[in-house]
Fold this protein.
Amino acid sequence: MNPPAPPTPNVSVEVRNLHKSFYAQAVLKGINLRIAPGEIFVIMGPSGSGKSVLLKHIIGLLQPDSGEILIQGESINSPGIRDRFRMAMVFQSAALLTSLTVGENVGIYLSEHRLHPPEEIARIVAAKLEVVGLKDVEDHMPNDLSGGMQKRVAIARALVIDPQLILFDEPTSELDPLMAVVVGEEILKLKTLTRATSIVVTHDRSLAFGIADRVAMIAEGEILFVGAPEELKRDSNPRIHDFIYAELPALHSASNRAGPNPPKL
Amino acid sequence: MLQNIGEIILLFWRTLRVLPLAWHQRRKVFDQLFEIGNGSLLMVCILSLFIGGVLALQTGPELVKRGLSFVLGGMVGESICKELAPVLLAILIAGRSGSAMSAEIGSMRVYEEIDALRTMNIDPVAYLVLPRMIAIVLALPTLVMFGIPVGWLGAAFVSALNNRIAVGFNAFFQDLRQVVDAGDVLNGVFKSFVFAAAIGIISCHQGLITRGGPRGIGRSVTKAVVNSIVCILILDYFLTRFLLYIQK
């Protein structure tokens, strides 16, 4: 059983010279990042740029070829680090255990580590589900829920850990724009509620600019930019500019719109 | 292949190390026991009945022709409890439960559920492998203990009802009682215990190393079943030699 973690409200994260290759193809090429305690740090970049791989290194699911990850100054690989710091991750696919009910999914951390009696776990689960706007879904199976609801259940599962560091992998992918806004609001709400350090990986520009304290731009395994969202918008790097301001040509050009002359009112 | 064997041994060792957590996983153990044991019971009955029947059918007429009908019960009875019941029921369980284990764990691996467990500091070996291992090593020997008398019954029925054999029910079991003792039954049960551990660890390992979506899951299931069957047959030879050696 895990001993209760110390009451540190949030933690810093440092990524030092991280290299990773898969089948001789370099995916991360010397990543360096410093994330301050309590901030929402967004990592943006196009698909296949290495964002999710970086996130999995930070939580310790992948081991780097070289370089290191420090959580509050301690290596992510140091023994017992997960007992000292509470970390949680919300996966792109939500990664709910499909053989368990929603309630069992949300309470799995507490029940497996035997932190509370079952009645107390049920109360905590209901409370955390309410935080993400879900009620009376404890007995549902994950597959009975919509994609957006599954994401929110995954956030509730992360909240149960009372995390000091919470990682979000593409939290708005596969969601409609309205649900994406709801999830973005949840992430902002968590900052107020938990004061946890949040790292969000996304290629959703509106989410990134809506929630980030600081943004990093990654492309082809390299960090192109780290700074405030407004600075990123003004950056002159053409790769960043192309990513930030990319539009569909048909929407960009008024001349391509359907109908040669809109009717005058 | 050597890497796989090494990984399987390591996984087995890690499973033994989390054995003290077994009581905490009892609900999952019961679920798996029900799935493997109760779910396989009918198939075990049918298989055992027909194994016994076909064995009597093949050997009976030849023994009768040579005037050795009085050894039929002992011969068939010993074959069933020492070899056929443990081996064939292990193959049945490898196909039925081993495949389910590798498919379930494999799909959890592919859809990041195991990664999610790891981020919550939940050991996948304690959570997934341990309950399945405990369940299968309890269920298969129990099924074999159940299958052995059913196999004997099948053989006795065929011996009694087939005109070319015509060895009565009483005569069959009288000879069986003279030849087969509790040690022979234990011999088969011990073998099935080892087979169960092999099926469990091979299937769980295949599940844990699954990669690449539904096709990867399919490949893992195939490998789990085939490797388990090959392992059962190889182990059977060495276990038989070992048991013959200690019985000397």
